[in-house]
Amino acid sequence: MAAPLKWMTFRNNKFDVDQSFKSGQISHKKAQKLVEEKQSELIGYCFHKQNPNYKWIVKKGTAKAGGHPGWTCMVYKVQLPKANEIQLYTDDYADTPQALGSLSSSCAGWGRPGRGQGIADGAQCLSLISRIDPNDLKQGKICDCWLISAFAALAEFPWAIPSLIQPGHLALDGKYTVKLFDYSKGAVVDVVVDDRIPKSRKGGPAFVKLSDDGEIWPCILEKAFSKLAGGYGNLKGG
């Protein structure tokens, strides 16, 4: 179930236009219509105030950076309802004894990002995937650098991340299906999780962090791996 999407404006921000999906003299109306029609593939567009009719329409995973006076990025993204405003999907893994095991002492329970439960509640650009950059990955309080470095290596191929997680945007009901290779079965399997992730006692995610752009895909991917492995503790040391 997809959350409703809306247009958000980021002043003095510019997309990496070198690999744009389409560029040229395009009206705002036509640019927005194209992005909305291809929302599973495209994230938005940018333009400069000196020629606002010339636009670069970009794919999901395209880098976006601030510090570019005169530029504007228009991003088509979701606005999540709070946890107490909607019935949310709950998986059979989060908040079970096996999920955290001995790591529970370093956590402050579970929370859903952007839903009023203490994780990224103030984020203005929360998303599942916005731009994909290996440098965005930040390890948390668990020794799973082997896994986080694998995420970073995968992020060198931005198109690969969206192919692993469905839906490809923030889910209204908090349900995600992640495709992972299960060595015990010798096949790719679907690992279904909700968006509850362990919380740090100081606030934010206890383990892998959200990206600088407020993307939660690292947290969802790490959680799915931990479920497949039988608990976050089994990710330690790889």
Essential attributes:
238 residues; alpha+beta; Hepatocyte Growth Factor; 2 domains; 5-stranded antiparallel sheet; 4 helices; 16% helix
Task: Describe this protein's structure.
- By secondary structure, the protein is an alpha+beta fold.
- It folds into 2 domains: 5-78, Hepatocyte Growth Factor (3-Layer(bba) Sandwich); 83-235, no CATH class.
- Helix content is 16%, strand content 27%.
- The chain has helices at residues 28-37, 97-100, 145-154, 217-229; strands at residues 5-11, 13-15, 22-25, 42-48, 54-59, 64-66, 71-78, 107-111, 165-166, 175-182, 187-194, 197-200.
- The protein has a 5-stranded antiparallel sheet, covered by helices on one side. It has a 3-stranded antiparallel sheet with strand order 9-10-11, with helices on one face.
- The model has no long low-confidence stretch (mean pLDDT 90).
